[in-house]
Amino acid sequence: MRRISTTTSSSSPEINNNDNNNNNNPHEEDMRRVVMVGKALRCIPPPPRPLSSDGEVAAALCHLRASDPQLSQVMDVHNPPTLQHLYPPFHSLARSILYQQLAYKAATSIYTRFLSLVGGESGVVPETVLALNLHQLRQIGVSGRKASYLHDLANKYKNGILSDEAIIAMDDRSLLSMLTMVKGIGTWSVHMFMIFSLHRPDVLPVGDLGVRKGVQILYGLDYLPRPSQMEQLCERWRPYRSVGAWYMWRLVESKGSPPPLPSSGPPLLLQHHPQEEEELQQQSHLLDATSIEGIPNLRR
Question: Residue 155: which region, alpha, beta or left (left: phi > 0; alpha: psi -120 to 50)?
Answer without folding.
Answer: alpha
